[in-house]
Design brief:
There is one protein chain. This protein is α+β, with helices and mostly antiparallel strands. The chain folds into two domains: about 80 residues, GTP Cyclohydrolase I, Chain A, domain 1 (Orthogonal Bundle); about 140 residues, 2-Layer Sandwich (GTP Cyclohydrolase I, domain 2), CATH 3.30.1130. Strand 2 and strand 3 form a beta hairpin. Helix 2 packs across helix 3 and helix 5 packs across helix 6. It is globular and about 60 Å long.
Length: about 250
């Protein structure tokens, strides 16, 4: 059964009634989406995508609600947003940035990626990279910036090189911890082209270490995942890491 709920254009948090005896529904769109996810038993952690549980029009309403809450946050930080021309529309900007840019991988569907049969039975490994990593840490919501390399030993299906970049961007555009980001990206690539072997390396700098905390500007984190033939065949895994080293060397020339 589909229930139609009215739009909410501000942060009012009282329940609403449709007046004909049906249960009261949460007025805030975030509450309605959360209740829907909970009823479906679906996880909505920071690095989960919830796009298929957001109904048409709700994302726009969510943008308004997030802006209201950011405005409250700025006021709570004792910033005079009514008189400060610099922060006057910051709440709206931050809401748009979170929902449609830096965390779009939570709220928007995966970009369409066509896969094709591997008719020539290609089975030589290749690597794609560097692909820019733009993410944010789940702990502080500050940037994680770096590079990623993907190695593939093709299976029954293949996808275009540029598609790896699009899928990676969609996966990274969520609050993450790097160790989980690499696993989620590997899962998505496996779903798309079912490679015989898959390797991913991420090298990234965490602004929660550069900008705050220990304030260590040069430290980066490197992690990797290898699956399928890359995991079972040490020489293939070695070849992948060697190809990435060569790509990195090219960058510095
Ligand atoms: Zn952090």
């Amino acid at each position: 059964m589909t229930t139609t709920v009215p739009f909410v254009t501000n942060g009012a948090s009282n329940g609403i009634s449709n007046g004909n005896g049906q249960p009261r529904l949460s007025a805030e769109v975030s509450s309605r989406i959360r209740e829907r996810l909970q009823a479906a038993g679906v996880s909505f952690l920071a690095n989960d995508n919830i796009a298929e549980h957001i109904e048409p029009g709700e994302l726009r309403a969510l943008e308004v609600e997030v802006a209201d809450k950011v405005r409250d946050l700025l006021r709570t930080l004792v910033i005079d947003i009514d008189n400060d021309h610099n922060t006057h529309e910051t709440a709206e900007r931050v809401a748009r940035m979170y929902l449609h840019e830096v965390f779009k991988g939570r709220y928007h569907h995966q970009p369409k990626v066509a896969s094709f049969p591997n008719v020539k039975k290609l089975d030589e490994i290749y690597t794609v990279g560097p692909i820019t990593v733009r993410s944010a840490c789940s702990h502080h919501l500050v940037p994680i910036m770096g590079n990623c390399w993907i190695g593939i030993k093709p299976g029954v299906r293949v996808i275009g090189l540029s598609k790896f970049t699009r899928v990676a961007d969609w996966v990274f555009s969520r609050p993450h911890i790097q160790e989980e980001a690499v696993m989620i990206l590997a899962d998505e690539i496996e779903k798309l082209c079912e490679p015989q072997g898959l390797g991913i390396i991420i090298k990234a700098q965490h602004y929660c270490m550069k900008w705050r905390g220990v304030k260590e500007p040069q430290t980066s984190m490197v992690n990797s995942v290898v699956r399928g033939d890359f995991r079972h065949d040490p020489s293939l895994k070695q070849e992948f890491f060697e190809l990435v080293r060569q790509q990195e060397a090219l960058l510095s020339t």
